[in-house]
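User: These chains co-purify. Model them together.
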Amino acid sequence: MASSITIEKVHAAYGAVRVIEDVSINVKAGETVALLGTNGNGKSTLMKCVMGIVKPVAGNIVAEIDGEKHDLVGMKTEDIVDLGIALVPEGRRLFPRLTVEENLLLGAFRPKARAQIKTNFDFCCEAFPRLAERLKQLAGSMSGGEQQMLALARALMLAPRILLVDEPSVGLAPLLVARTIDAIKQLKDHYQLTVLMAEQNFTQAIRIADRGYVIVHGKIAFEGRSADELNNNDLIRQFYLGM
Amino acid sequence: MNTTKFALITIVVGAAVMAFAHWYSIDYLFFASYTILQFIVLATAWNILGGYCGYVNFGSAAFFAMGAYSSVFMHKFYPLPIPALFIVSAIVSGIAGFGMGYLTLRLRGSFFAIATLALAVVLQTLVVNWEYVGGSRGAYIIRPESIEFAGITINYIEYLFGLMLLLTIIALVTARAIERSQLGFGFATIRDDELAAEACGVPTLRVKLIATTISGAFMGMAGAPFPYYIGYLQPSSAFGLEYAVNSIAMPMIGGTTSWVGPLIGAILLGSAQQYATVSISSEVNLLIVGLMLVAFVIIAPNGLIGLVQGWRRAWRKP
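Assistant: Joint model of the two components:
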């Protein structure tokens, strides 16, 4: 039951503006890989490339889902979602005028996910008791941390094999960042997910990451083969932490 | 309440309205109510794209006129009974809606609105230069006095009124069914956040194209019997500003999130306009729309429905 993603030599651009150059990343089955970098370095764009929201100019993106290989470049977003790849978008992106319950049910929009909607819904309520208490509340009226939980839960309603998380820490208090990161770890263990997480909060991200890449100006500046390697590295201090 | 039940109820209400109108039997009443019904259909159709999906369409007049001119074209080319014209207009305007959607849906917000406005201008220019359907001179369609229907003679305006009533019922039932369906949920996600919708696997382009097609088709159908109603159709009346403005203002005033909104808005605004036309002057129409729109944006930005919901919420927790 292996699900992995291989990104090979991907270039992406918005019009004439080059955002990503020659990026190669792989996420092996069952791994949590952190994509580290400050704002404006192309983390979100790479996520959007995987989801088919942005079309790469060149390069390959191949996902292996339960042993079957799929070329993601040129596929429609809804078909990529159908394969079992879910994105938790940056800034949560809930449907603020719908209730928590409706947000969750909408997570399972695709026919495949709708078939097991009940089990997934129950699991979400169990995993996030705060949400279970607030099913009838409007999503936009919840606190930032609760909204991030809802965004995660909504992605889980798809019963994904691979989870892409884009900047889960944006706009959250430090304590809530830690909680969100913990929640991702728990979900990953429970569902045996493969996780690619873009994050600029370095210390929080490498708490749960097996490995990581540092992306600077659209290029991979450093590849850390373990969390330790990322933690004690001069390059990272220089490029990323600015020390 | 499921859709079948709702459909039955609207049919019963519709039949009651028809029976009452028949019993009252004043020609003017038919003329005035026909206009209001036509606006209910237009407002409901606009709301499917504008209210449910959040894409503001300023080109309602174009779709309406396309329906009307399809009828004029068919009248000259191969005269058909009006129910068949509904279908012709639905197809023509539906295809136009699909095409417009395909070309413009990559634009969002005000850019989409401007593109739809441009569509109306382009189409009006085309029609003005198309001699076959009357060009800028306009086209006359002489309406028969009455129509024989299963051995009964029906006043023609009553016939038009009945057909428009039927179309209104179909439009309302469709809008309500969409609202409660998976498709309606898809529309709501696009309105709230399109990127999140894509991340959830909503096939956004397809869903939006369905919306523009349905919306366009209903607007076209609203225009189909119009040449027979008015008797003389010219481009400036078919593409009139009032159609674009009214079909936006009516859902806004009623409330855009539910099928009830456009219905209430159209009845309210439509009646006010009809009253003003008779008692003051027909030119005051748009002034009334403008004033009411300003008032509602200030007092009830979510329309009458939003206002009532607000009161209810306040009532429940004293």
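The interface with chain A takes residues 182, 185-186, 188-189, 191-193, 195-204 of chain B (CB under 8 Å).
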